[in-house]
Amino acid sequence: MKIGCHCGASIIDQTDELPHKGHLIPDQAWFSTNDAIDDEVIDPVADGRLGKEEAYHLARRIIGRSARLMWQCRACGRLYVDSRDGQLRCFVPEGEPADREVLRGGQRPAEPGAAPDTAG
Ligand SMILES: [Zn+2]
After folding, report:
1. Where is region (Disordered) located (predicted)?
2. Ligand 1 mean position to 98 CA, how many Å?
3. What residue segments make up the domains of the chain, in order of their start?
């Protein structure tokens, strides 16, 4: 998949674990998603009604049905979000410099003035 950004850059989505792609779960779906994992996956596994492999797939399917995809342009920081009607909606960041890594995984950088991370 390739998105042509309004700035002229291209957003490429051809592999997994992209630092500029995210999966958005609306808050109105958050609790029902967690409840579905409890009811449809964890409880049946605990009761022996569902196998481990089936549970893996079912949990991913439950999360996937609640999530919509989003991408960020690494050149300008615009966000593109799949809307409920299936259209790709563009959001422009305010302020300079724009944070171009809002969808990147991993830990947040340390707050200024915070104690240094001594864990290594
Ligand atoms: Zn752009």
Report:
1. 99-120
2. 11
3. 1-24+71-99, 26-66
Measured in Å, residue 75 CA sits from the centre of ligand 1 at 5
Distance 45 CA to ligand 1 centre (A): 45
pLDDT greater than 50 at residue 120: no
Whether the ω angle into residue 97 lies within 30 degrees of 0, i.e. cis, is yes
Q: Using alpha carbons only, what angle is made at residue 26 by residues 45 and 12, rounded to the nearest 5 degrees?
A: 95
* Distance (Å) from CA 76 to ligand 1 centroid: 4
Span from the CA of 107 to the centroid of ligand 1 (angstroms): 24
- What is the rounded distance in angstroms from the CA atom of residue 10 to the CA atom of residue 71? 11
If you average pLDDT over every residue of the chain, what do you get?
90
Would you state the pLDDT for residue 81? 97
Could you tell me the distance, in angstroms and rounded to a whole number, from the CA of residue 58 to the centre of ligand 1?
A: 36
pLDDT tens digits, 31-73 = 999 999 999 999 999 999 999 999 999 999 999 999 999 999 9
Provide the token pair at 111: 């707050």
Interatomic CA distance for residues 12 and 40, integer angstroms = 35
